[in-house]
Design brief:
The chain folds into 2 domains: 11-189 and 229-254, 3-Layer(aba) Sandwich (Rossmann fold), CATH 3.40.50; 194-227, no CATH class. It is α/β, with parallel strands linked by helices. Helix 1 (20-31) packs across helix 8, helix 3 runs parallel beside helix 4 (106-132) and helix 4 (106-132) packs parallel to helix 5. The model has no long low-confidence stretch (mean pLDDT 95). It has helices spanning 20-31, 43-53, 69-83, 106-132, 155-177, 195-202, 212-221, 230-241, and strands spanning 11-15, 35-40, 59-63, 88-91, 137-142, 182-189, 252-255.
């Protein structure tokens, strides 16, 4: 007996699809039968990801500034044209914003909020009409364990990712009370070894390579003794996008190796 792919018939838009996490989610979505639109502020990165994933299934790419309303409308229109609709939105795009409440300059604060939180609001608000047309639908928001556990030098990042967490819950309630079969859940990873990890250790300066010693310190802080991986996130996203999680909304998946349990 042949098993049906877990995302057969799903039409997905993944923001930040040119980066490590977005590309990993896209790859797993394609393996599970979804058709995918990758969007990224860097069109070359989006095109490269599309080329690299083309052998896995039906994948498309478009340029997309998640902080801009017009760009969201264009990305959603491109998705509808390419895929015929939308029933999975993955709000994945984000940036690292270090600094305490005294250290973060107002422009940096606003940039962090714009990319990490406002983008989720814009994408969700503008995508909901399209999602209603292709129910059942799912919104998957990439937050962070930093949206649940604060740090003294992460004021803007903590605030934005916590905002994504609460916006997820509000969106879930709004959709459910409107009688729509549109679910909204969030994923909260621990540190992942991507370019974002380089930003963590750069402390606002130029990106630097992460040493094995630095990785080791972060890994030891998690009870499972390792960093989160892009594949860990991709598997969680598949579950939330699939009908397997049909009774799950307004909830969160912590991918932190037990860090928040201590």
């Amino acid at each position: 007996m042949t098993m049906q792919p877990r995302l057969a018939g799903k039409l997905a838009l993944i923001s930040g699809g040119g980066g490590g996490i977005g590309r990993a989610i896209a790859a797993e979505f394609l393996r599970q039968g979804a058709r995918v639109m990758l969007s990224d502020i860097n069109p070359d990165a989006a095109a490269s990801a599309k080329s690299g994933l083309a052998g896995l299934g039906d994948v498309h790419a478009c340029a997309h500034d998640v902080t801009d309303e017009a760009s969201w409308r264009a990305a959603l229109a491109a998705t509808r044209d390419a895929l015929g609709g939308l029933n999975v939105l993955v709000n994945n795009a984000g940036i690292w914003v270090p600094g305490s409440v005294e250290d973060v300059e107002p422009d940096t604060w606003r940039r962090g909020m714009s990319v990490n939180l406002d983008s989720v609001y814009l994408g969700t608000r503008l995508a909901l009409p399209l999602l209603r047309e292709s129910q059942p639908a799912s919104i998957v928001n990439l937050s962070s364990i930093a949206g649940i556990i604060a740090g003294p030098n992460l004021a803007a990042y903590n605030a934005a990712k916590a905002g994504v967490w609460m916006l997820t819950k509000s969106t879930a309630l709004h959709a459910a009370r409107g009688g729509n079969d549109i679910r909204c859940n969030s994923i909260h990873p621990y540190f992942i070894d991507t370019a974002l990890l380089q930003d963590v250790f750069s402390k606002g300066g130029p990106r630097q390579e992460v040493s094995d010693e630095q990785r080791g310190k972060l890994a030891k802080a998690a009870p499972l003794g390792r960093l989160c991986t892009t594949q860990d996130v991709a598997h969680a996203a598949v579950y939330l996008a699939s009908d397997e999680s049909a009774y799950m909304t307004g909830s969160e998946i912590k991918l932190d190796g037990g860090f928040s349990a201590m």
